[in-house]
Amino acid sequence: MLHLGHLIQLELARQERTPAWLARKICCDRTNVHKIFQRESLDTALLARIGQALNHNFFEDLARSEQAGRENPATEA
Q1: What is the pLDDT of residues 10-43, one digit of tens each?
Q2: 3-state SS assignment for residue 57
Q3: CA distance 55 to 70
């Protein structure tokens, strides 16, 4: 399973954006963005807002990860 917080952090870095930038885009405090980075899973509404801010479809990433897990069941814990 993907660690969504880490995935968001990687995408933010890839786009050379800061946690403060993301916080402004999703209307929360910068410290909350850092807490998001630590979370393995997120509420779908929050994930959708983050994806919209970053113009990235994290749901598609989840679907690909799930599909890969089905194709390679030995890699799952």
Answers
A1: 999 999 999 999 999 999 999 999 999 999 999 9
A2: coil
A3: 27
